[in-house]
DNA sequence: ATTCTATGTTCGTCATAATGAACATCGTTC
DNA sequence: GAACGATGTTCATTATGACGAACATAGAAT
């Protein structure tokens, strides 16, 4: 089933595009010449906006009108530590789990990230089409784009678009994770 | 300049799609569950409809949402008897005027139409992508799609999309015209 | 000519979208 | 901790889109 009401479509779309631009609800409202309350209600699925309202939003977000009616593609992939396609026999002393294959025409840089709780590391958007793959080694961390962060425990894998603001936030001391940045070349 | 307000875009689009379907304003209104007055105001460029209203219209017209925001391409070509690109010297005893060239992949059937005043001949839509070329030989006739009829005198040429309801109406006795139907094959 | 049915328009009323102030929360700074 | 700024939410009020009846007009049928 794919029958969403226009309300829901728009609610998702506005939130998606807004967070993609890294704009706050208040900021978007004032730039678009709308009341905060109006936006708030729209993003929560309530309301039935007029086209002038939508037009102002689309222009301010610098997207085409129809973008506001497109369904949000997840663009993320989450594989928990106990999930995934395992390679190797059940009795073997080692196991490998395929987390993501490598598309041709992409380059991958590997980082190790050491995090301590309390400080949320916010990363500015990378070039369009960039993805990040994150695997937690030690501890627990909240990772991902602003609009779709995930709580990851040791062994969990998360892939998300990195061409928008995203965060790394450790929940335990000594948290370590591996981050692979995937860029098109 | 291509900066139309959403109002105008929608006004044009609704009228275009409605007449393309051959629906009356009242009929569309009742099918879409809207008041006639609402549609009337929208089509006259006044008003600032809500998305629920637009959604109902789009669904009833069986078009995608974004269709209602597309600009209306004219799709018609009108060359009066004294216009057009003439071939041959000015002193020659004959002149030819190129009215339309023949795109590859199209087939053209030629008809002669004899009309008398008083009876409006309404033609039902032909397959999508069909065009008609009409040249009046004798008399005067009103020809074209419902939303864009043209008064043609002898020698006038008119090309219009025929995948929607269109009419031939003679204004003088003994009116004759040549109609070429262009279909994709 | 007269009625009847369809067309699209205009208007007063009502429902509701948009507003702005007040509110609640959270981080940051002093 | 207190004060501050920015976040997004909730509410009353106001502006306005949607409605439906009445209207004007045109064609067709009687």
From TrEMBL, chains A, B:
GO CC annotations, alphabetized: cytosol
Recorded GO MF terms: DNA binding; DNA-binding transcription factor activity
Keywords: DNA-binding
CDD domains, A to Z: cupin_XRE_C, HTH_XRE
Cleavable signal peptide: none
Keyword Repeat: no
Protein name, per record: HTH-type transcriptional regulator SinR
Gene: sinR_1
